[in-house]
Amino acid sequence: MDLEQTNSIAVSRRRTLPQTNNFTIGELHALPDFYGYVRCLDGPLSFNMFLGGSDDGVALRFFWNGQFEKTALNIWTKLARNSSLIVDVGAHTGTFTLAASSANPSAKVISFEPYFLNWARLNLNLRTNSIETSNAFMLAAADRNCVLPFSVNTNPGYLSTGGRIGHGGALELQVQAVALDAFFPRDIHGKLDLFKIDTEGTEAQALKGMESILTHANPTIFLNVFDSGAAQAVADILLSRGYRFFLVNDLTGDIEEVETLVPIFDDRGKPRLDVINRIATKKLSKPDLLALR
After folding, report:
1. Dihedral of the CA atoms 185, 189, 194, 200 (nearest 10)?
2. Strand partners, 247
């Protein structure tokens, strides 16, 4: 079967489904492969991401589900419109970077992605959308400038969403890490007001490396919460600085203020992906966030 036939099968199947779905990643991988560019989001904020069969779980969700972390991404794009310097730590293949750049083409969006396969796809997606690639860095964020082990548990043909600093993966490599306070010139620390940090459990290390930025900018930070210990380490740092936390339900659109960062698990003990997003902020209230959905 050639590529045109393969894609035709996928497109035909997609047309039989509702515009938005909630397929799990296991269900998505059982659907027909699609090779090509996927249109993400609607209207003027849309952007394209490449999907090579089923090799990127984010582009895969956009193709079949018609959405990815919908509520959090909507809030992110609207906050990006009023930010001039935006930082995406653990950018993966670029969803939040692309959304911010689409929402505010005049903003500088700086992306950090240490895994070389993800970083290569990030660059492809940036070029596809005519976005400058010089602000995408193949670096990890940590509490100091150093070389660290980085572990990946997915097979080499899949763009990992589970790679993290540390030992123990099926594939282990060395990556360059930087403290963000050292990476960014001190005179712009107070201007870095919007962050997404998704480093698969080592977010506290990234926060320890940006103490000056936290002090001078009080940035609003988007986080994924799926590990209890890692979440508590992040909460300890941010609560001591007066941050408030909001749980985002990407399925219902609900937003709830919570006292700390605690993951929510399903009946099998797996993190529920519809409630994995949190927003840490000193500047925004629940009504503010509800208005941005």
Report:
1. 70
2. 256, 278
Phi, psi of 86 (to 5 degrees): -125, 140
Cα 278 to Cα 257: distance, rounded to the nearest angstrom:
9
CB 48 within 8 A of CB 39: yes
- The tokens describing 277, both together, are 């997003």
d(CA 228, CA 101): 32
| Alpha-carbon span 90 to 119, nearest angstrom | 10
On whether the CB atoms of residues 248 and 277 are closer than 8 A, the answer is yes
Q: 């609003």: which residue's tokens? A: 220
pLDDT for 51-98, tens place per residue? 999 999 999 999 999 999 999 999 999 999 999 999 999 999 999 999
Nearest alpha carbon to residue 68 among 292, 222, 274:
274
Say how far apart CA 156 and CA 240 lie, in whole Å.
40
Neighbours of 102 (CB within 10 A): 20
